[in-house]
Structures are given as C-alpha cells and as structure tokens.
Amino acid sequence: MASDEMFELTGDKGMGGRGLTQDEVYGNIFVYNFAGHDTMAITMNRALYLLAANPEVQEWSREEIHAVVIYDDTQSKYQEYYPKLNRCLAVLKLKDTPARNSSALKPLIAIAKSTGAEPQPLTLNGKTIIIPSNTRVIPNINAMHSHPRYWGSDALIWRPNRWVLSKKSDSETRIQEEHLPNKSTPEEEFPFSPQKGTYVPWSEGARACPGKKFGQVEFVATMVSVFRKHRVEVVPEKGESIEEARKTAEKSVWDSEIVLLLQMKKPELVGVKWVEVE
User: What spans are recorded as compositionally biased (Basic and acidic residues) (predicted)?
Assistant: First the structure.
C-alpha cells in the first residue's frame, strides 16, 4: 500500500497544488505498468539481440557495470549508481538504423498530435505557416532520428557510444567520432544531450510520456542485473559461422513490423544463449 507521505508529496503546495487522491495515484501506477510493459519488453528484446550480435558493445557496457556497481551491497543505491550508468542507458536509445538496410528502425509507437480547436502557426525556414484547426499532425520521427545534420555522417549506424561523451572531449555537445570501444573510462563520461526536438521517442514538452524515467531506470536496472555475471551470445545454425549468425541476429532486429506495437517478424530464426562469466 502507498503511504500517506507518498500522497502528500504529490502536491506542490508552493504552487497551490492539491496533490493526488489515492485513486489517482493507483490509476497512474496502473497506466505505467499497463502502457509501459510491452514497449519496454520489446525494446529489451531488440537490445539483447543487438548485444548478442555486437559483442564489443556488450563488453563496453559490462565494463561500465563492473566499474560502477559494488556487488556486495546489501541494498541497491539508485542515487549513486544510476547517474553513472551512461553506457547502459545508451544501449536503450535504439534510434539508429543499419546502413545496409533501407528501411528505418521505426519507433515503437507513432506520436500523433492535433492542432486542436484553433489554427496553429509553424515557423519553417524563417516563414510562418498556418496549420488549420483540428488537423492531425504526425511528425516523421524516422527521418528526424537519422538526420545527418544532428547525428553525423554515420547516422544510419547503430552506435551506442554516440550517446556518451568524455570530460576530456573538446565540446560537451560534440558526438564522439570514435568507434567502440570508447577511449575514456566510465568515471570520465557523461551523457550526450541532443538538440531539443531532434530525439523524441517519449515525445517532448508538457505532454511527454510520464513513464520516461520509469522506463529508463527499469532498462538500466535490467542491464545491470543480467550482465553483471553473464553475457549473451548467438547460437549458430548447423554450417553457419559465428559471424554469419551475428549478422542474422542483427538483420532480424531490423526486419520488424507494426502489429499493435513494433515487433520483430521472425525472432525464432535466431538462437541466443546466456553464458556465465567471472
């Protein structure tokens, strides 16, 4: 049961807020779990296949886990650990598209908006365009998440380390040009913050997904839990080399379709296994 203190904390008394009722808190918790369950499960599924197909990214993530997390702790230390697990969070951000595949890695869901009851102005290249009232607007997120202007010449390559910068770099807003592994150590790193409006998988602004942070923490916690003592590997079919199996695994991620949400068409074509490591 949620405590009385929890309900009191939901109200911003400095702003005259009334707080949330118990039913409202429970309702929000239900939506978090119901609406976020499949999206995070699908994202984790795709991430595990990609990590199996790209062992160098997996080891890069495991290096951070071992550098940050103290395993003999009796309790998890969210405030201490989570802000330092930038590489694990970078794996979550599956915005990238494989260069060898012409179809974009689509977002899990479309973000449909409306102008509402009044016409809305849109400034584009110095000109103002008026969009009529009650017009549905669906941003082209695929194009935005792979535009070279914002993501560099390798925008179509899955490269999680683009999301991690080093304190030694010349600019805090520069995307790393180095390919994995990073030359920096986890202690020297901090997350890359993209230009506003260029990365919106959770939407943006006042009506952004309220479960964004919940999902991010859930993903990072799962990464730490499963990779602290294990790694995931592809299982080649008979007559298939390990490299061929990795390519098949990655291809199966990009071969996705929208049913209710985005999902891989034929995940059963690729076998993976968990291997315990020291």
Answer: 169-181
